[in-house]
Amino acid sequence: MCGIIGFTGTRPAKDIIISGLERLEYRGYDSAGMALLADGNITVKKRTGKVEELKKLCATDEYMATCGIGHTRWATHGGVTDVNAHPHRCGQVVLIHNGIIENYRQLVVEYGLSGKIISETDSEVVAALLDTFYEGDPVAAIKKTVKALSGAFALCIMFQDIPGKIFAIRNVSPMVATSCDEGSIIASDLTALVEFSKDYFVVPEYHILTLSEEGIDVRTLKGEKVEPQMLTVNWDIKSAQKGGYPFFMLKEIYEQPDSIRNTVTPRVANGLPDFTTDGIDDSVFEGCKRVVVVACGTAMHAGMVGKHVIEDVLRIPVQVEIASEFRYKDPIIDSEALTIVLSQSGETIDTLEALKLAKSRGSKVISIVNVKGSTIARESDYVLYTHAGPEIAVASTKAYTVQVSAMYLIACKMGLVKGIIDEDYAKKFMAKLLNAPNIIEETLDNANNIKRIANHIKLSQDAFYIGRGLDYTMSLEAALKLKEISYIHAEAYAAGELKHGTIALIAENVPVIALATQEDVYEKVISNIREVKARGAYVVLVSMDEKVDDPAICDKHIRIPKLDKEFTAFATAVILQLIAYYTSEAKGLDVDKPRNLAKSVTVE
């Protein structure tokens, strides 16, 4: 989950590394550091806090080194201290690491490394082991080291006596690399590379890279030279900048209409869903008797919206599984089940392992991911890429709605292929999906009203979301958003369950955000709202009503456009994202970088 970057070339490395770390900071921001190699000397600078603290530490120093590595940390092993920050140096070796070394304690004992270790991290053990094996041949030392390691790792390494070169190797943990006129650069994420080149490659697992001013040499552990498969970024550096918004999250909320258009429109032909360019054959859906959706966090909630639509429209059973639970049980899955995995980064470790398990049981796998060439994309049978561009804020917004859009596409295509819906129904369905960006744009016009509501919610320690059917599914994601960026304890409840215990939590002025967008259960939800209102709750109602000013029902009303019940999710999602955003902003918090969290969960 940490951010790593390495550069070697013709330009001073310091500013390039600092700039890259700022773009990678959403991957971890407990501490930051860098190491620079020049004239046979390695200089290491690191400090707890965000990258800005490292920037201050190095502000007055002039470094002419053109070779260096940098790291921004999300702590796993060891607390947040300067000593535990990366890079870690041992003897002639300095390195940065993303991942978890599972057998680091055994390595300390087996190789007598305790005298070399000063931190609490698993990463420093790798540096100590490398230094133990290093006898002038870096490749030989790296081979011996990775052979001893158990776990996930992405390593960037410099040796004090080898000027101008960075060595890298990975297993599971992501790394991408590119060469350009200025030199060679490697990082854990494309956001740090795109300034230099739109062309890049995903570092192959268990291949040793040697980066130099001249380019990047890629070899297998047997020493065979490999020409990596080059990919192209379809967005530019401006997409990874705030563009005048106070936070990335708000920018990304407003980018949702275009993100959905970019994801859906290319997959519509003659008004019908078309996966020809994705290479997803109709046979994938023909033999499918049930669907298994596997994901984590927000992506799982997107899968739950997909479940609602597939079951409601197609009457095909769908089970949604938490990836971290799925992989540690004996799931009921076989060749008659279609597995759909969702991951924004395409590197989520639990989702990746669940994918492998599903494939081993004979299930075909479609992945919905946002990053070309990511591990999950490569491991899947089929890939449906979303086109949201980079998402920098830790709290996912546009990645969520494009995943929902992708699930709607799959639902419509599956229904057509299986003959459950006809072309006329499918065209009407797709027309509504194509209209979703317009609905979001209309909904965003209510942003100021939502901002005023947040000023009340910010004063509370608790908040509750209630709804039925699809609204309950939306409530789960809404509660997660509020929790992760405002630190307000928030829970989502099926409205009909209030009388079964949860209404005991309702007290005077406790915010209850009630969703009532599903017309078939509208009156039932209104009855549930009256119950919490009678107990003093501060109720915010989200519905399609023109106006609700009955104080027995709500204190504030937010209207969404009149929509068919399956398509209210898009308008509702935006409102709930804005409630979380403005509440966090009103509390004076860093919306983009909530405490204890990081963007891409690449470790267990």
List keywords for this structure.
604 residues, alpha/beta, eight-stranded antiparallel β-sheet, six-stranded antiparallel β-sheet, 18 helices, 35% helix, globular
Structural class: alpha/beta
Low-pLDDT stretches are none
Q: How are the strands of the biggest sheet laid out side by side?
A: 3-2-4-1-10-9-11-14
Per the principal axes of the C-alpha atoms, what is the gross shape?
Answer: globular
Major β-sheet annotation? 8 strands, antiparallel
Description:
This protein has 604 residues and is of the alpha/beta class. Helix content is 35%, strand content 24%. Strand 20 (364-369), helix 12 and strand 21 (382-385) form a beta-alpha-beta unit. Helix 4 (123-133) packs across helix 5. The mean pLDDT is 93.
Give a brief rundown of this model.
This protein is an alpha/beta fold and 604 residues long.
SSE order and pairing:
Blueprint: E1 3-9, H1 13-24, E2 31-38, E3 41-48, H2 51-58, E4 67-73, E5 88-90, E6 93-101, H3 104-110, H4 123-133, H5 138-148, E7 151-159, E8 166-171, E9 176-180, E10 183-187, E11 199-202, E12 207-212, E13 215-220, E14 231-232, H6 248-254, H7 256-264, E15 268-269, E16 272-273, H8 283-286, E17 290-295, H9 297-314, E18 318-322, H10 323-326, E19 337-343, H11 349-360, E20 364-369, H12 375-379, E21 382-385, H13 398-417, H14 423-444, H15 447-457, E22 462-467, H16 470-486, E23 489-494, E24 511-516, H17 522-533, E25 538-543, E26 556-559, H18 568-586
Parallel strand pairs: 17-18, 17-19, 19-20, 20-21, 22-23, 22-24, 24-25, 25-26
Antiparallel strand pairs: 1-4, 1-10, 2-3, 2-4, 5-6, 6-7, 7-8, 8-12, 9-10, 9-11, 11-14, 12-13, 15-16
Helix pairs in contact: 3-4, 4-5, 7-13, 7-14, 9-13, 9-16, 13-14, 14-18, 15-18, 16-18
